[in-house]
Task: structure prediction
Amino acid sequence: HSLLVTRLANRVRATLGTELPIRTVFETSTVAGLAARLDGTAARVPLRRGVRPDRLPLSHGQRRLWFLSRLDGPAATYNLPLVLRITGNLDVAALCAAWHDVTTRQEALRTVFDADDAGPFAVIRPEAPAPERAVVAEPALAERVRDAVRYGFDLAAEAPARLSVFEVGRHDHVIVLLVHHIAGDGWSSAPLARDLRTAYEHRVRGTAPSWPDLPVQYADYALWQQETLGSAEDPDSPLAVQLAFWRTALAGLPDRLELPADRPRPAVATGLGDTLAFAFDAGLHREVLAVARAHGVTVFMVLQAALSALLTRVGAGTDIVLGAPVAGRHDDALDDVVGFFVSMLVLRTDTSGDPSFAELLARVRETDLAAYAHQDVPFELLVEHLAPARSAAHHPLFQVSLTLQSAPAGEFTLPGLTVVPQEASLGAARFDLSFGLQEHHENGDPAGISGLCEFSTDLFDPATAADLVTRWRRLLAAVLADPGTRIGAVELLDPAELRHVAIPPAPTRRGDLAGAWAAQVARTPDAVAVEDGGERLCYRELDRRAAVLAARLREAGAGPETAVGVLLGRSAAFVVAVLAVVRAGAAYVPIDVTQPPARTELMLRDTAAVAVVAGEDEAAGFGLPVITIADGEPMAGAVVRRPDSLAYVMYTSGSTGTPKGVAVTDQAVLDLAGDPAWRQGHAERVLQHASTAFDASTYELWVPLLTGGRIVVAPPGGLDAAVLRRTIGSQGITGLFVTAALFALIAEDDPAAFRGVREVWAGGEAVSPRAVRRVLDACPGIVVGNGYGPTETTTFATCHTTRGPVGEVFPIGAPLSGTAVRILDDRLRPVPPGAPGELYLAGTGLARGYFGQPGRTAERFIPDPFSPVPGGRLYRTGDRVRRRADGAIEFLGRFDQQVKIRGFRIEPGEVEAALRAHPRVQDAVVTLDGEGENKRL
Ligand code: AMP
Ligand code: MG
Result:
């Protein structure tokens, strides 16, 4: 592992006076080979005990922790606890004396931090406080230990280390050894354990430990660090050279990784966390080692590559950044010193292009070796100099860390006693996710890897963290068995999860529009079906008028699979016209009366319409028979319709190119109107106000008509809060749909305008949770619904209703009857629950496709690999969604729009590469951070 290589380099420097780059050892792993490659590069200044200035500097790492502690006040976040249960005849007095010996030997453990105008400085106290001692009854023990572990150090006033000794019984003690990170790290525990044991052995015998002085103390290191790194202002200094490397290596880094969190990220992270223990078994461990050896990489690199691949697969993108600790003990002299030397390396892995695992390992090896060669820049300086967008919501530069414990375990043993380490949870999380792993061996053979996952409880539930680990194990098993496997090809779900993805749509009643309409007329002949200003038509009369018009449409050639344009604004006449087209067996093409004639012409030509129904004053035109509504003889007999008859063709603007006519079947309309969502009396009086050419009109028309409700035509003109309030009051509207934009507008202006409505639906684009909250607050008893769906799936595909409360996201909910949802990745493979993916829709609610455009239809309507029946299709929505733990789907945004690239220096090639990696994206938004080195973009 890389730490061993670092130690080798340290030894070579100390012994031979020359530098040995880490990469050289990876390339040349024999002594003879290395000897040939040592080129005598002058070694840097060795670390020695020097003259102490009056004012002792902090190391860079210490400065950051000091700063954080000033910012947040005393907190347990950076505590390093060790809890030991000791059974046997513990000599408490000897232990306390030994603690005194250790803290005397290791200056870091008795250093406090003062500050003046010039910043913080270290003050080494002559001695550390004596241990805390208490007799604690077993029932109170857990709490005492917890309090001790979560102690908040005041770094300005007290030593950053404490020992607590709790006497539970005469031969039963628990000790808590707590060191603030500012004075220690993982690699400190071995010397600390060794010193404590040595001192205790002496003190038990009544002697003082006789150990040689440490070659250097932490303060010497802090001074040396300043001296050897030099200043960032001096371009030739090692610091400036290494910073330049990092600036390039981390250019364009995403602000943060998008992780499949259970909750939205709070604006300010609480720092609270929890842990989860896990293990990879000996078999997997053996394979990790075998693959590492075969590919010339470390065990860490194998685990890192697999974790990066996993994060990509769960939606974090293809630019994966992990933090990994490096020991930072750049000199042999530091081996026995307790202190904060560890630094975090930022390891950035490009997982794009769906590489094989072997290829990914090669990338990781390159990145890591380059990073190791520039590991002298302390993390905190990197943050300062790269100045990524700083935020209190997440850790800078990386949010996920990976540690493979290579520190020699600090085995705490005390002579004559049984010492058992206890779990000590801080309830804190420094990062969003940290994975700490440790290899185990038995007689030199791999015996498994144990792990601890620390996760931020701001974001994750324990079950989600456990799922991630399970999928990591599954991914590892697959790619280790065959490193040629592409990372996108690994199945991350178990069979039960896969079965869940293939859930078919809830069944609906088969039927056709003419039949369903006739049945409704028979059920409620005298109920008012449509109310338009002063005019009211009951179901029977509406049907009669439709039959009259249908007769004339038949004469004009309307029949099954023919189209009839309906060029009427919202009105009772529009309803008559639509029903007439249906009765004539044809399909209606609703046309917005306000749209340019050229577009109307295109739609009529495109659908090969046989006639146009229009108002009296509509100029005859478009080369088609124009039929106005007039009285006459009703159509004789009936034209048979079938579930798959063409009901209507509705045009979507289409963001690019020519409009597309979405061809919708009878069954799809029946599925929409038949959904139980409408069966709560809310469709009693539905406001018709949408443009007739907009798919919301399908809801406004067919939901009331097929449930015995009433269509209430809105007064002419636009809808605003005042009109709405008046119409609801005078017409007793019970249900309506408004676009998300209008909903938000009214919610801001006058949320009480919806008062009296039983159910208001918003949709068409993302619905603001704030708007929903305002409306719920202002309108007691109201139900607010989110209706989601493309025109291609008949207005609504999923919906969600609430009476409150509303969280940070207002979900789009669950599929309507007749619709099934699948959340898939680029390979049409289901993404893990909670991970973002593209929404695909299946079921009878799908349109046939684009009228007369098989090519464009085939681009978006594809075979459903999960269909329980042959011939099932999927519609690709282009929408990014994720499924929450409670099953509701959240809308995250659209695919295919933009890729954002930001950084301090951006090469033109990077932009091209980003666009290549996102073949469906059309725009790149480039942001230069800070001054920006190249403005030529
Ligand atoms: P259209 O086919 O014009 O109705 O547009 C459909 C698209 O509008 C969907 O693919 C979504 O991107 C967006 N959309 C529709 N309803 C919603 C909703 N309730 N929440 C978020 N986006 C929506
Ligand atoms: Mg829509």
